[in-house]
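Forum: Protein Structure Q&A
Topic: Joint prediction for protein chains with partners

I've read a bunch of threads here and the consensus seems to be that you should model interacting components together rather than docking separate models afterwards. I'd like to see that in practice. Below is the full input, 465 residues plus whatever partners are listed. Could one of the regulars post the assembled result?
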Amino acid sequence: MKIAGEQTLSAPRERVWALFNDPERLSRLIPGCEKLEVISPTEFAGTLNVGIAAVKGVYTGKLKLEEVRPPEHYKMAVDGKGKQGFMRGAGTLDLVAKGPNETLATYGGDIQIGGPLVQVGQRVIDSAAKMMIGQFFAAADAELKAEAAGTVARQGFLLNFWRYLVRLIRSLFTRG
Amino acid sequence: MFPAEFEYHRAASVKEALGLIQQYGDEAKLLSGGHSLLPILKLRLAQPRHLVDIARIAELGQITELGGKISIGAAVRHHQVHTSDLLRDKLGLLAECAGHIGDVQVRNRGTIGGSLAHSDPAADYPAAVLALEGEMRLESAAGARTVKAEDFFIDLMTTALKPGEILTAIAFAPLPAGTGFAYFKHRQPASGFAMVGVAACLTLDSGGKCQRAHVGMTGLGAKAFRAKAVESALNGKAPDAKVLADAAAHAADGIDPLSDIHASADFRAELARVYTRRALESAVARAKR
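Posted by a regular:
Agreed with the consensus. Here's the joint model:
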């Protein structure tokens, strides 16, 4: 199965790169990810619990990063298996800055899937993969936006607090 | 292969079924016609500990007309939908669509609720249910809610159904006078699934102009959807051959088509345009009759 696509994320490239290299945050964004452990800076081990229709299963696997060129490119090798099937393959991720606050993520890969899963799921495996990738990028974009909004919100809070203090001090003096 | 061991519960009422799925939670799976679930169980891709059979609940097996709406119980078999006089008379599109599903064995076992809840991207019913603006009745221990077809299909095999809910019935308004309809599909020869399926439903006004156009599409994308670009290209126009062909050209607009060993994405998109044009032509011819 070949996978290819692109997605625009609303954050500067460095921030997108940081997110895509942060196992803790990634584990929250990958659909069904229960665990993502760091083995080495370029090797992760994880557990996915995914279910589509009645087919639910737990898959464990390893993810290895190669050809890492921050903040624009890495290659990843995936090897995973569960009771219902296995998958192995390789893919690439490229990040291109489209603007000060916009990054184009381009991905591509070739994945082999085998086992009983294929017997019944052949028709929908491609779409299932596409759906999960879509969910991941939507979550990543939301995370990046929240990250940006978080900074702004904190600034807003500080500003309001400062104004409140100024008013309070002024009112003290007017009353006096 | 045989399924893994499970305990079989035959629910006699919706209330009992709701109680059972609440009691067993993740361990339970609803069984209706079994045409999607059993292959999955036999390959042991799913191994639920409890199967709750809702196919024999009497209240789910009825087709009723009440207060200007027609309600079809979730456990009504495809064959019943195809042959019901009431449905042929007032919801012809649905009856016609049911006749295109799988083969005789499938139509005698499979149920409308099972098909819709499973939401296979190539199932036939979703196209017709979308074009007819069906309303899904979802019941849980907490009560019942109604979800429009357009909001029910969310993504690949993903619906608005929440854990603990059962799709119990689908309600429709009967087709207005002056309406023509057609369901056209390109069958996958082995499975009978729709490589592309188009349900068209057109209402013409007294001047012969298109007053209302609903087009439901299945098989093309990860979920069934309303082809809104086709519909808006028809509204208010006299549906001559050119208008229909121009409208049908928008059948795959904005969709990322499925791709598998049977049909590439480009071929599927082309099938969608061709079958949409045929379905529209047939619907207009019937509306004029």
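Chain B has a mean pLDDT of 96.
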